[in-house]
Structures are given as structure tokens and as C-alpha cells.
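Predict the 3D structure for this chain.
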Amino acid sequence: MNKRNEYMEKLKAQLEEWEYDIDRLEARLDEVQDEAKVKLDKTIKDLKVKQKDVQGKLKQLEGAAEEAWTDIKDGVELAWDSLKLGFLAAKSEFVERKQQKKSK
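Done. Predicted structure below.
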């Protein structure tokens, strides 16, 4: 397997894992109240948009000529970093809200 294919397979696997985790966060929204619920719902929607962006860029990468894939890879990595940071922030916020609820 060449470097490009390995790279794409790694990203696809992580995207699938995050899609599952995003779905789990969304399913747990009922555990959160009021403003926090609205904020987390918006965050989840933003994550889904970022996820679609990464998926679109991966499709570009798949269709790119061997010489052009390194240029497209930079765009994929920017979108990837944005999705990763958004996901980690959402997950952290959800855990924080859950801990606040327990301590009351």
C-alpha cells in the first residue's frame, strides 16, 4: 500500500470513529438542560458540518493525480484539525456538564 492510501485509510477510520462518537453525544443531549443543551446541540451541528467538509476533501484527495495529492493534503489537514479540535471541545464540554450535574 502506498503512502497516499495509508494516509487516506487512517483518516477514514478516524472519521468513522468520530461519527460514532458524535452520534453518541447527540443521543445524550437529553441529559443536559437549557442553555447547555442549546450550546451542545449547536456544537454537534457544527461538528457534522466540519465532518462533511473533511469527507468532501477526502473525495478530492481520492480523485487527485498522484502529483497533486500533496497539495490537496494540506487542505485536508486544515479541515481535519478543525474537526478534531471541535470534537475534543464538544466531548470535554459534555463531560464537564455531566460532572457539574453530579456535584449538585
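The chain has a mean pLDDT of 82.
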